[in-house]
Amino acid sequence: MVQKKAKKTTSKTTTKKKKVSKPQVIKVAPRGKEFVFEDGLKVSNLKMLADKVGENSHYFTSHVNDEKNDFYSWIVHVFKSQKLANELKEEKNIDLFRLKIYKYLLETR
């Protein structure tokens, strides 16, 4: 006589975890949305911006002054980062401006 093994039934409760998505960080400006300096130089990401204003202070002073901050506008509209833009909005010190960008890039890796 052959005995049949009883099938074991286990009740597995499947719980789907909802993914908490981080806001999508735009790393590179879309084509046509690059920042263009007076001499035609284009930068398409924040690291390039920080690097270039460090290499040539005129790039910074011609776009950041008491009347305007073109980089603030570019960051808000292209990179959708209100947080970074707000940190840079009133920054008139080129070294602190660059440092804040580099810090942001490290935090959003």
Jot down its keywords.
two-stranded antiparallel ribbon, 2 strands, 5 helices, 109 residues, mainly alpha
Task: Write structural notes for this entry.
Helix 1 packs antiparallel against helix 5 and helix 3 packs antiparallel against helix 4. This protein is mainly alpha-helical. It has a two-stranded antiparallel sheet. It contains 5 helices and 2 strands; from the N terminus they run E-E-H-H-H-H-H. The model has no long low-confidence stretch (mean pLDDT 87). The chain has a domain of 73 residues.
From the N-terminal CA to the C-terminal CA, the straight-line distance is: 67 Å
Q: Tell me how many strands there are.
A: 2
Strand order across the largest sheet: 1-2
Structural class: mainly alpha
String of helices and strands: EEHHHHH
Estimate percent helicity. 40-55%
Low-confidence stretches: none
Mean pLDDT: 87
Shape: elongated
Rg, alpha carbons = 25 Å
Number of helices: 5
Query: In what range is the share of β-strand residues?
Result: under 5%
Q: What profile does the largest beta sheet have?
A: 2 strands, antiparallel
